Amino acid sequence: MKKPGGDAVAIPGDRLGELKEIVPGDGTxxxxxxxxxxxxxxxxxxxxxxxxxxxxxxxxRERKATVLPGVGDVVTARVxxxxxxxxxxxILFTEGKMLRDTFPGIIRTKDVRAFDIDAVQIYQSxxxxxxxxxxxxxxxxxxxxxxxxxxxNLGVIKxxxxxxxxxxxxxxxxxxxxxxxxxxxxKVAKTKISAEGSxxxxxxxxxxx
Length: 209
Prior knowledge:
The protein is mainly β.
């Protein structure tokens, strides 16, 4: 995702690099030996000094009009709460465009995946803090958008482990902490991470046909 001019978009929790290589600027925080984004904004790289580059995350201000998510749009959202029936989210981007304000969204159990719907458990699909790619189905109750991840390319795109580390996708239904090696269930969006991962997620694709 790029802003005209070349700056990359960052979302909270994005790992920006090693502390030994980066001077943490505005909109960032340090955890361990790494620097992370603390807000939604554009990544701005400064001059290099003594082998380290300053990185700031700048909130976008130059907007002519508010963009609204529409039915059929692919959105990026953060999970805020989960219960037995649904996950609640705040929508951050729609069709690659950063929103001026966040909008509430809901993923119901029947919209998590396209097969074996009766066996879906929300807590094994999403956790608070997860970043999810989803499709807008409709405007639901209480002005919340109904969202769906019932396609291979939709689902969790970023999640932290219980230990606080960014996890690596293993398959369409599992991610792993690179530090503790503990595996956690998720409904993972299909990404090109490895031949092994792509092959496993192919199992979901065949199940949905």
